[in-house]
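for ur thesis appendix - Odorant receptor. copy paste whatever u need, i formatted it the way the template wanted (i think)
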Amino acid sequence: MQILGQDPRHKTSTRNIIVIIMVASVGSIFFPTTIEIYASLRNRDIDGVLECLPQIIATSITCVKILNMHFNRRNFDKLYQMVAKQWVQLKLNGELHVLEEIVMQGNKIAQFYQHTLVVFFSLFLLIPLIFPVLDIIHPLNETRTRQQLLRVNYIFFNNDDYFFYVYLHLSWGAIIVLLTVVGADWIYMLIIHHSSGLFAVCGHQVQKATTNLNYFTDKRVLENDMYENFRNCILMHKEAIRFFNILNESSQRSYMFQIGLSMLSISTTAVKTALNFNKPEEAMRSAAFCGANQFHLFLLSLPGQVLLDNCFNLTNDMYVICIK
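the 3d part is after this line
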């Protein structure tokens, strides 16, 4: 949250500065890549365009994530406040275990997501260093051809003349992209799983209201207990709908752009990998990038499916009550 400028404890000015630094870091890759695409188009170098497209798409997705959370800051602050309030309320009611189980499931998925992307990113980061390291360990009569981390154009100087300086800059930008993607998606996963957990709590309250009834108690007392339980269920369902509406308002367009750009990136990296089978280093780098994109797209879709499943489970619980 702090990396994305989303920590509610920070001042507005601090959060704005963090967002500016993150966007500037991503932009330092975006603009040189755009210049390289323009140069490749002028030279009719289709391979160069295909090589640049995935990285410009990745930086675009990163900017979408950062700016969406920045411009919808008020809605996200509302969500954070609702999460804290509902967590305390359910703990007092003895129903926190239902919500906690689903949220912990989301947290485990987010951790797995982080570890997987870090593995792909490490491969992507280390591959350009293979030939420079070989030049040190097993030198030849001539320097091996060096492949930069990303294809960019700085206009004012030749990238090959400053290989390691350019590599450090591109590595910094790539690390910012990784931190932003993982951080933003982690927050979304936890929030969406929290929303799913609220519907699961509704289902739990429905079952609680219709089972373990003591028919030997006074009829009025029994009716009052059932009324109170169903009232709590309705209030929780209303709260869950409100939470979902705020989340949907803050994320719908962002998700549409991210999914569309991810699909485009997967297509271009897959084509690039197929075209570079005769260049193992380049093919491995493209394959790692393609794998990370596919996993990112999968994880963008999974929390929504979890939310749908819990909504359907609530419907099934209501249907079972009607049958009874």
